[in-house]
């Protein structure tokens, strides 16, 4: 049986691209497990409010939530720790930056900004300052502390899983389209805002890290990978709309800034972000890159992915998460890709939920 | 500069996503007495180049969004000079993101492209209940209804809207185009849609064809 020390040694080697086998967490299931794909209330987003009721459509405010209701249940699996963390579906960063989250039961999600943003169209000439909503920040920290007090040792505690980065927060503030038009029309103000948002991301991540105790001389990220230093995870969903040129000019600098502030950072991308894989792995301070693999038309086919992964794995470790793969597809990935830096987390369902399964 | 050269320059500046350049040449062309029809044609050619570059993966969604913005501004400059017939002939499009879904950037890109191509677009926004789609189709009588969704959980709502149109006796009066990442041709057919648009540019092309054949 593998010891904890062996697991930590494996993780430590993975960050350095020196592991001799990939990190694997493969779950075999006969039933599609993702509740959020369903649309009825009983199996919808299942955000439990402090009065015990499920969240319904409408605004979400801090007093509706309490720490004991918004953390995940701990368990472990495969080569990864499965840490306890604060409920990730709340758009914490947007809320902390002043955008009130909205629950949508039918959409099985919690939103911020509605795509339109909350700032006026001429935000760029008003010199609006982002005000940190201390109530939301305190709730995040209190819930993290609650997780620590209740579950730390034997369980590990990690930062919140969905921490949105500067472009996504900016989209919630000014609107999706306005982020892009801002890059063309008001590049100076757009860069200034993105930089300010990167500072807030760093502040929030540092504050959360301060209440998470170290584990075996390091920390565990939300994917359950231990590292011998501080860890973070942030995402930049909005870069899916950007050309590589715009990514490099506007987002790479703020991603770099966040990566410079911590020891072992990971950026979360979706399949549609594959065009930015090279630019993001050029960030020297980046620890690892994670791709959520959605099949075409969301992104490349598995065959198209192989050379991309090979190229990126020469620079940085990759966490590949797929909703479903067949056993043969998992074998292919393991056969084609070097183990050094590879982490694969997926579900296998032979009958398949065909739409989310890579086709043969 | 000769008329042909000015128009070619206009096409090129738009194709290069040059906001200031397009605006400037538009004004120059109008003040030089070039007809609004020719100017619109030159801009359309610029948009075609952008579409080709998008399909060749030289341009990305950011360029499509910005091109739509530039075209919108150019149209505002040209609008007072458009001949009556050009205004009258505009086909009507109603578009919205279905109930439960708050994603709108895909829809907004399509709207930018449609508006810049001279369509009269009514944007119902996001999280639109089926009853509102039916009411708007009944009132505006559009040539095309566009339904958008990004979430797989909300795609079935498109079928609900189409069924509601049938129930209201409006289904044959309007062509329905659906678009969104979770969709494909087969799924769109199952939902009862007339057309599936794989991306924003395809959406524009399909709607152009639908309107031309009607």
How would you describe this protein?
The complex is a heterodimer of chains A (360) and B (214). Chain A has 360 residues and is α/β, with parallel strands linked by helices. Chain A has 11 helices and 11 strands. Chain A has a 6-stranded parallel sheet with strand order 1-11-10-9-8-7. Chain B starts with a helix and ends with a helix. Helix content of chain B is 58%, strand content 11%. Chain B has a 5-stranded parallel sheet with strand order 2-1-3-4-5, with helices on both faces. The chains are: A alpha/beta (360), B alpha/beta (214). The A-B interface holds A 36-39, 102, 104-109, 111, 114-116, 176-177, 180-181, 183-185, 240-244, 246, 275, 297-298, 355 and B 17, 19, 59-63, 65-66, 69, 99-105, 108, 126-127, 151-154, 156-157, 181-182, 184, 198.
Question: What attributes characterize this protein structure?
Answer:
heterodimer, A: 360 residues, alpha/beta, TIM Barrel, 6-stranded parallel sheet, 3-stranded antiparallel sheet, 11 helices, 13% strand, B: 214 residues, Rossmann fold, 2 domains, 5-stranded parallel sheet, 10 helices, elongated
Outline the secondary-structure elements:
The complex is a heterodimer of chains A (360) and B (214).
Chain A: H1 4-15, E1 23-28, E2 58-59, H2 92-96, E3 102-104, E4 109-111, H3 123-126, H4 134-151, H5 166-174, H6 176-185, H7 187-211, E5 219-220, E6 226-227, E7 231-235, H8 244-260, E8 264-270, H9 277-281, E9 288-293, H10 302-313, E10 318-322, H11 327-336, E11 342-348
Parallel strand pairs in A: 1-11, 7-8, 8-9, 9-10, 10-11
Antiparallel strand pairs in A: 2-3, 3-4, 5-6
Helix pairs in contact in A: 4-7, 5-6, 5-7, 6-7, 7-8
Chain B: H1 3-15, H2 19-31, H3 36-55, H4 61-78, H5 84-88, E1 92-97, H6 105-116, E2 120-123, H7 130-140, E3 144-148, H8 156-167, E4 175-179, H9 185-191, E5 195-197, H10 200-213
Parallel strand pairs in B: 1-2, 1-3, 3-4, 4-5
Helix pairs in contact in B: 1-2, 1-3, 2-4, 3-4, 4-6, 6-10, 7-8
């Amino acid at each position: 049986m593998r010891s904890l020390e062996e697991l930590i040694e494996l993780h430590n080697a993975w960050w350095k691209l020196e592991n001799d086998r990939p990190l694997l967490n493969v779950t075999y299931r006969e039933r599609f497990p993702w509740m959020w794909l369903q649309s009825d209330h009983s199996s919808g987003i299942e955000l439990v409010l402090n009065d015990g009721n499920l969240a319904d459509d409408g605004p979400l405010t801090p007093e509706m939530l309490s720490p004991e209701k918004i953390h995940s249940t701990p368990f472990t699996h495969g080569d990864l720790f499965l840490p306890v963390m604060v409920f990730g579906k709340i758009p914490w960063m947007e809320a902390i930056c002043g955008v009130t989250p909205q629950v949508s039961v039918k959409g099985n999600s919690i939103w911020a900004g509605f795509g339109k943003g909350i700032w006026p169209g001429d935000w760029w000439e008003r010199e609006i300052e982002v005000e940190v909503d201390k109530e939301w920040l305190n709730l995040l920290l209190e819930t993290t502390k609650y997780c620590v007090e209740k579950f730390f040792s034997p369980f590990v505690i990690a930062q919140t899983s969905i921490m949105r980065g500067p472009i996504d927060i900016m989209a919630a503030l000014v609107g999706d389209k306005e982020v892009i038009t801002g890059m063309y029309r008001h590049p100076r103000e757009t860069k200034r805002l993105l930089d300010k948002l990167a500072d807030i991301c760093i502040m929030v991540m540092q504050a959360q890290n301060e209440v998470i105790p170290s584990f075996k001389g390091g920390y565990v990220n939300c994917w359950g990978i231990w590292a011998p230093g501080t860890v973070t995870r942030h995402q930049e969903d909005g870069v899916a709309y950007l050309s590589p040129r715009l990514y490099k000019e506007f987002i790479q600098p703020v991603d770099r800034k966040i990566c410079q502030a911590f020891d072992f950072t990971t950026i979360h991308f979706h399949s549609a972000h594959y065009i930015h894989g090279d630019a993001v792995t050029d960030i020297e301070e980046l620890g690892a890159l994670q791709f959520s693999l959605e099949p075409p038309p969301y992104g490349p086919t598995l065959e198209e992915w192989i050379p991309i992964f090979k190229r990126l794995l020469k620079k940085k470790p990759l966490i590949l998460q797929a909703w479903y793969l067949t056993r043969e597809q998992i074998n292919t990935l393991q056969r084609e890709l070097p183990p050094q830096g590879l982490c694969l987390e997926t579900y296998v369902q032979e009958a398949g939920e065909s739409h989310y399964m890579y086709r043969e | 500069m000769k008329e042909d050269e000015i128009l070619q320059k206009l096409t090129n500046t738009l194709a290069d996503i040059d906001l200031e350049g397009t605006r400037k040449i538009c004004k120059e062309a109008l003040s030089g007495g070039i007809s609004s029809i020719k100017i619109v044609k030159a801009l359309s050619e610029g948009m075609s180049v952008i579409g080709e570059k998008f399909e060749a993966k030289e341009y990305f969604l950011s360029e499509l969004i910005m091109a739509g913005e530039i075209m919108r501004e150019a149209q505002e400059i040209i609008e007072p000079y458009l001949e009556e017939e050009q205004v009258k002939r505009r086909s009507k499009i109603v578009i919205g993101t279905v109930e439960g879904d708050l994603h709108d950037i895909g829809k907004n890109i399509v709207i930018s492209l449609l508006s810049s191509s001279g369509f009269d677009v009514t944007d119902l926004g996001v999280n639109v209940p089926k009853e509102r789609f039916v009411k708007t189709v009944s009132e505006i009588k559009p040539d095309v209804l566009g339904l958008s969704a990004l979430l797989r959980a909300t795609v079935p709502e498109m079928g609900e809207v189409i069924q509601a149109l049938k129930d209201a006796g409006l289904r044959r009066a309007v062509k329905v185009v659906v678009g969104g990442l979770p969709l494909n041709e087969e799924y769109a057919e199952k939902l009862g849609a007339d057309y599936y648009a794989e991306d924003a540019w395809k959406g524009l092309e399909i709607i152009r064809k639908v309107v031309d054949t009607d």
